[in-house]
């Protein structure tokens, strides 16, 4: 005779425990994969030649962003990026020592009616710094006076503008020629990979400025250098580097700036 006091054990707590355990495991995988893969991909840009040569023995095409290893890492970071955005776990470590940044970038537009292919830019004596001619439309986030300013609002725009440029900083052991050659490669690669984002921002800012449409719209990188407490005035700059150009009469295609030749070049297909 069945025991009338017997209560069937519910499977619901077991299912909840299984789901909780699965979430914990996936979260641990996310933290390791996301941070480790992102670190390696960012490190690729600044690898020395001997490190690249050693790496080619294990992943021959990885330094050129090709091959099975790179594709696997790209797929992993794509999935973990989406998870971090969905769960508000943005794994960004740039605020923590000892890797605190000493540079601050602001985008700006240079509007010019000079006839292409000539560009209204002239090199300065210091490598990768340029003088420009024409009307400059500054970002809403760039302080007009570095001695007195207070940021309020524009948070979403500021976060977006932080993603418009790669990190460009001279290395201590580099010659001026090596600096501009490395900058050229990074500008070319970044513009090719983010052409839609950069082009959309340029067209949006031009429309927002309500300026008449010029023959050339040049995206400028305006760089400020933080000198620290022992450097006299706390900031130097702005230093200007042309980055990309849009010619409204030629369609929506962007050109990248070559700081070696001081000219704008079409993006490779």
Layout of strands and helices, then pairs:
Layout: H1 12-45, H2 49-55, H3 67-86, E1 103-112, E2 121-123, E3 130-132, E4 135-138, H4 155-161, H5 176-193, H6 195-209, E5 216-226, E6 235-246, E7 254-258, E8 263-266
Helix pairs in contact: 1-3
Molecular structure report:
By secondary structure, the protein is of the alpha+beta class. The protein folds into 2 domains: 12-86; 103-266, no CATH class. It contains 6 helices and 8 strands. Strands 4-1-5-6-7-8 form a 6-stranded antiparallel sheet. Strands 2-3 form a two-stranded antiparallel ribbon. Strand 6 (235-246) and strand 7 (254-258) form a beta hairpin. The mean pLDDT is 84.
Secondary structure tally, helices: 6
Mass-distribution shape:
globular
Average the pLDDT over all residues and give the rounded result. Answer: 84
Report the major sheet. Answer: 6 strands, antiparallel
Strand segment count: 8
Please, how many domains?
Answer: 2
Strand content: 15-25%
Q: Biggest sheet: strands side by side, in what order?
A: 4-1-5-6-7-8
Poorly predicted regions? none
Give the helix level as a range of percent: 25-40%
Order of helices and strands: HHHEEEEHHHEEEE
Q: Rounded to an integer, what's the Rg over CA atoms?
A: 24 Å
